[in-house]
Write a structure and sequence with these properties.
The relative contact order is 0.19. This protein is mostly helical. Keywords: Membrane, Transmembrane, Transmembrane helix.
């Protein structure tokens, strides 16, 4: 299971980097924000642990989503003034504080879902926006490999550490945005603050699909067969992602 999770992390970073090469930093970030890692893991958990446990995990993931948004926004804002180690420290610090605070708040499921759905939109409103055209990222092969190695190493440390802590701490560790941490640390020193802001804005766009997946999965598992609920969740994530990209293209279209 550990090797499978690490393989998903590597695949996510690889696809996001290839998308950035071809379409620009924002598209790479949007792909990284989607549940490419979480969805296959949830499918396996549905088989191994059953509906009740998966619904609990889905709700816990949604409860931590505002902390993930804070992490992304903090890094994007700090990138205009600081180097990547400072940005990373500020982003992870904000994530931990928000995550602990959210864990202490007991909200009903409908409120957790509502806050989770609204969080990416709030993040987009606050984040720095890249106003120029989407430039391709000429990521050299050595950096390509380093991105994957850094992401896999971080994921392994988090997953192994989570097994040694209580459930509340484990849930917080597993909610750390791995691709949202590794990719900007490479993007900022090589491509600058504007490219980093574009990457993180795309990540926030992708997290709309992430939130839609877990909301649909949580409520779908209570009303239909697990396989059907999972397919509905995937369709919800894809539909929201396509709607977001259509909205971005519409907003970028010059006035007639």
């Amino acid at each position: 299971m550990l090797l499978f999770k690490l393989g998903l992390v590597a695949l996510s970073v690889m696809l996001s980097t290839l998308a950035a090469r071809r379409f620009g930093h924002r598209v790479g970030g949007a792909l990284a924000g989607m549940p490419m890692i979480a969805a296959p893991i949830m499918a396996i958990l549905l088989i191994d642990q059953g509906v009740a446990q998966v619904r609990a995990i889905a709700l816990a993931t949604l409860a931590c989503l505002p902390a993930t948004i804070l992490h992304i926004v903090t890094f994007a804002k700090a990138a205009a003034r600081f180097t990547w180690p400072v940005c990373l420290a500020l982003a992870l610090g904000g994530f931990l504080v928000a995550g602990v605070a959210l864990a202490a708040v007991q909200m009903p499921p409908w409120a957790v879902c509502l806050v989770a759905v609204a969080s990416p939109a709030a993040g987009l409103w606050h984040a720095a926006h890249h106003s120029g055209p989407p430039a391709r990222a000429g990521v050299p092969r050595i950096e390509f490999g380093l991105r994957i190695a850094a992401a896999v190493g971080m994921a392994a440390a988090i997953i192994l550490g989570a097994d040694a802590f209580p459930p509340a701490v484990s849930g917080l560790l597993l909610a750390v945005p791995i691709t949202g941490t590794v990719l900007p640390c490479f993007t900022l020193p090589r491509y600058g603050a504007a490219a980093t802001a574009s990457l993180m804005t795309g990540f926030l766009q992708g997290l709309h699909g992430f939130a839609a997946f877990f909301v649909a999965l949580y409520w779908g598992l209570a009303a239909m067969h697990p396989a059907a609920a999972f397919c509905v969740a995937l369709a919800a994530a894809l539909g929201v992602a396509l709607a977001m990209q259509a909205g971005v293209r519409l907003a970028q279209r010059p006035p007639a």
